[in-house]
Amino acid sequence: MRHVGDRGEAVVAAWLQTQQCQILAQNWSCPWGELDIIACDPGGVVLFVEVKTRGSYNWDRDGLDAISPSKQRKLILAAQAFLESQPQWQEHPCRFDVALVRHQRGAYHLHHYLAQAFTLDSIK
Fold this sequence. Notes:
Blueprint lengths: L1 H17 L3 E9 L2 E8 L5 E10 L13 H17 L8 E11 L2 E12 L6
Parallel strand pairs: 3-4
Antiparallel strand pairs: 1-2, 2-3, 4-5
């Protein structure tokens, strides 16, 4: 299943680059988990992008339901760990985005990109 996720992440990374974003890291891991894509947009905002790749017929609204409050907490903790390890990005504003990718018959496409899908306040 990792292969499917990798393909979805590649689609999103390529799309972000067309939006003039700089990819800072992909599949960055720490004890809290993995950050799929970390990018910086043209305005200097650091984007922590969670990518969910699903087939056309799925049970969790194209992966959106998989971004539970518990998952959001882990992503926030991982983002904090990334920023601690990369001090040059600590003063930049940050955003948590979700990218939903669909695949069907070997074709992958970005179905929906949710900018600022959740915030620190949304999980309290």
